[in-house]
Amino acid sequence: MAEIKSSAVPRGLGATQRRDAWWLELLPTIVGLGGFGLYATLRAFEGVYYWAAPYLSPFYSPLIDPQHHVWPFSPALLILAGPLGFRMTCYYYRKAYYRAFFLDPPSCAVGEPAARKYRGETRFPFILQNLHRYFLYLAVLFICFLWYDALRAFRLDGHFFVGVGTLVLLTNVILLTLYLFSCHSLRHIIGGKVDCFSCTAFNQTRHGAWKKASWLNERHMLFAWLSLFSVGFADFYVRMVATGLIKDFRLL
Ligand code: FES
Questions:
Q1: What residues does 156 pair with on adjacent strands?
Q2: pLDDT of residue 9
Q3: How far apart are CA 153 and CA 167, in angstroms?
Q4: What is the CA angle 111-112-115, rounded to 5?
Q5: Tens of pLDDT along 43-93?
Q6: Which mutation among 33, 92, 176 tests ligand 1's pocket best, with the greatest number of atoms within 8 A of CB?
Q7: 177 lines ligand 1 (CB under 6 A)
Q8: For atom 2 of ligand 1, which residue has the closest CA?
Q9: What's the rounded Cα separation, in Å, for the pair 108 and 104?
């Protein structure tokens, strides 16, 4: 195998032998993730316009102490750590924001800022990324609440009801479920850690579940982005209806 002399490899931030527009892939992350982060932060602190019967904003679900008996601030702040921690520690998002916001490295085979020692995720604060599997358990709990909210949106004043908002909440929870079920940690739990499926209990069932999880996992980036937009849009829609800026149309 031919030896690559280190002197032939460009060094320093942005140094590369790549000829393609590698920096283009950073822009959607900066705009999409940065924009969502800003909007979600403002909405989480706003503390109002999260309910427009029969719709509850996903940013505020589960809704805890809305009457402020104990907690004087926005109810969204009580639950923010769950979904935020799950997204922040997601393997896909880690790659995306390490590149886009830390330029560490900016892309494959592109130089990172000088004088940085690579330590992986073995030191504080990045060692906390290993909490992802525990945030996954929390996310399972959250998705149950969101499914409850989506199904509740099919009833208004005791009658069956379908409004535009019902479809918005339903689409959102489906995309969030796909994002959750395509998680790398979940795939690992289901069968990624297994060397021999035929040696395990329920081997055929487990192998089938692992194949489905693998199919979803290959599309994890897609579901990560779709669910990010859908959850932001669902909150935005509920807010618009709650403030009276738009009217929710009844379809059925
Ligand atoms: S790896 Fe992305 S949600 Fe688990």
A1: 159
A2: 57
A3: 9
A4: 115
A5: 999 999 999 999 999 999 999 999 999 999 999 999 999 999 999 999 999
A6: 92
A7: no
A8: 90
A9: 10
- Here the tokens at position 51 are 């309910």
Where are any strands of DSSP class E within the chain? 51-52, 55-56, 155-156, 159-160
Which ligand 1 atom is nearest residue 90's CA? Answer: 2
Q: Which amino acid is at 158?
A: G
The rounded distance, in Å, linking the Cα atoms of 78 and 63 is: 9
Is the entire prediction scored with pTM above 0.90? yes
Which residue in the block uniquely carries the two structure tokens 């705009």? 31
Tokens 């979803």 correspond to what residue?
Answer: 216
Q: pLDDT by residue (tens digit) across 224-249?
A: 999 999 999 999 999 999 999 999 99
With vertex at residue 120, the alpha carbon angle to CA 117 and CA 123, rounded to the nearest 5 degrees, is 85
Query: 16 pairs with which residues across the strands?
Result: 110
The span from the CA of 231 to the CA of 40, in Å, is: 10
